[in-house]
Amino acid sequence: MIRSLKRAVRPLLEKLGLLTPFDLPNYRTVMFDALTRIKPDLHGQRVLEIGPKDGKDSHRLASLGPESLVMMDIPAEYTLNVTSHSITPRQHLPSWFQSIVLPGKSYKEGNILYLAPDELKALGRFDLIWCTGVLYHNPEPLRFIKRLFNLLQPGGLLLLETSLTRHPALKNHNCVEILWPKSQLCLRTGENDQQLILSKVVPEPEQSLSIQSNVSHLPSRKAVLSWLEMCGFQEIEEIAIPIPDHARIGLLAKKGTFSGYTYSNRGPEPSPYAIGDSL
Fold first, then answer.
1. What is the pLDDT of residues 212-248, one digit of tens each?
2. Phi, psi (degrees; rounded to nearest 5) at 162
3. 187 domain-assigned
4. Within a domain: residue 176?
5. Measured at the alpha carbon of residue 120, what is the angle toward residues 115 and 123, in degrees to the nearest 5?
6. What is the DSSP letter of 198?
7. Which of 76, 62, 87 is nearest to 214 (CA)?
8. What is the CATH number of the domain that holds 228?
9. Could you identify which of 21, 126, 156, 256 might form a hypothetical disulfide with 234, taking C-beta atoms 3.0 to 4.6 angstroms apart as the criterion?
């Protein structure tokens, strides 16, 4: 309860400058600070943000003055009102979108992994892709990372952040924790998808504490690094996320002009995996 209360009042404390040295910085702030150390501005660059959530990162990215900022989130046609238990339409454009001051801004609903070929082509290529808190919600993380790789210009930069497994027997190995089917016994509801109805199933003592209906598995740190290398990313740099138990990881990775020997371009020619935009 105390943790929930601190989370609720944190935005106010941040605005008033009342956070103490004992209050850990928000992981998204840490990621943005890491970006600005490398790129103080984004003038003339195309930026793709996947999963903008509350729009805070969108405002931060827009403040760096990119030529264009494409924000993409999964479609949310309807939401359940917890108070009235009625289903009401959700706005396609989030309320915070209009407050972003940037001529080249655009918002698109869709799952980046399952876009039709013509929609994918219309997106073009980007100089920077910002993706925080999304990877572990995706059932096909390796294919998802490969899609991000393909959407970058040569030399383009990926900022990726994700939650990790907390399982003590798994977190130090190159592996993935499977949460299915227990994760399906939880239900996310609420106007902003922030309220979580807890599962009646009690997790095993060593299992990850965070179980949500749209999280089927959680990777280890080594697994995420391996996925990036397998997809062809280079110059991979970790960003220290000051969260207890190392439960999240932030990464900077660059798309090189030569992708190297990735798992998808080895073997006979033509590769049986080189079909369309598949692996």
1. 557 888 999 999 999 999 989 999 999 988 876 678 9
2. -150, 155
3. no
4. yes
5. 130
6. P
7. 76
8. 3.40.50.150
9. 256
